Prior knowledge:
alpha+beta; five-stranded antiparallel β-sheet; two-stranded antiparallel ribbon; 13 helices; 7 strands; globular; binds the ligand CN(C)C[C@H]1CC[C@H](N2C(=O)NCc3cnc4ccc(-c5cc(Cl)c(O)c(Cl)c5)cc4c32)CC1
Amino acid sequence: MSYSELKGLYHLRETIGSGGFAKVKLAYHSLTGEKVAIKIMDKRSLGEDLPRVKTEIAAMQDLCHQHICKLYQVIETADRFYMVLEYCPEGELFDYIVAKDKLEEEEAKIFFRQIVAAVGYIHNKGYAHRDLKPENLLLDEDQNLKLIDFGLCAKPRGGMENVLYTCCGSPAYAAPELISGREYLGAEADIWSMGILLYALLCGYLPFDDENIPQLYKKIQSGKYETPWWLSQDSKELISAMLQLDPKRRVTINQLVTHPWLMEAIDMPVEWNSKYKRKVDDDCITELAVHYGKSRQEMEADVQEWKFDYLTATYFLLLEKKMKGRPVRLIQQQQKSS
Length: 338
Ligand SMILES: CN(C)C[C@H]1CC[C@H](N2C(=O)NCc3cnc4ccc(-c5cc(Cl)c(O)c(Cl)c5)cc4c32)CC1
């Protein structure tokens, strides 16, 4: 495969994973040397999944948060889509839980606060994720969680019905109202999935499980699940508030952020605001302006078009370097040999 569209922009390395109809490769962004993950999708093999790609790209261009995997650049050719994404070296939260059997309350609490922050942010922006599960939460180099796979998300502005069926996401995490095919609110279904997620973090297995899907659905709709002896009273109460069969009785994201179990020992409500500023970073603009031989005003105007082209990627990756305390410098191209 040539991937000629990436030549000079990214140095492509090995395939690091696959996400359904996509291949994910490690790559280096040539101007900053930073690692990225490039999700490559072949249009021919996408078939009816093509709308999912457009949904994911549109959502991720609108989302900018410390616990959401950052989209840096989108390249569309006749045959392919490339999504240049934030690299998460520590892989899936799913594998992390399996490796540790289950997590201690303190660690689960730190992770779950990050999940509540990410979901609170997207709900606030009018999105429901609808496929929340440990496989879609990746760990970065600092063990921070990054939410991925927005292919099933929706902006519930009448868009919900027509994706009611395709968005069962993963049955074990699906809310009772969603599997019964009734009308549902994405935000309420996400809260249910977060209840399943918290149970999985603290127990190491799922509250409702069965190889036989109809059997699994019966268990979900019964709303009955075991609570092992090691769960604290507060964690049991929180899980129960999220796994309410009646979506109207379910805790809301606004109530979650100050829930006793989430506040315990941390004493601060969950903050879902993005750490990213609306205003562009002056150091990054300066470095870019020097590199491209433009004035700072021109450079700032170009960056603020947010085209999700190579300039958008370079800006965000420079900002990443700054946030990690690394020099805000671009790799100067070798002088062209005369
Ligand atoms: C549900 N699972 C199967 C899905 C797998 C997909 C591959 C993942 N992955 C690795 O396999 N190795 C390491 C690795 C490192 N950085 C990544 C950054 C972004 C994405 C990413 C982001 C978005 Cl938004 C998205 O939609 C998709 Cl599909 C992938 C994947 C990364 C990754 C792990 C989860």
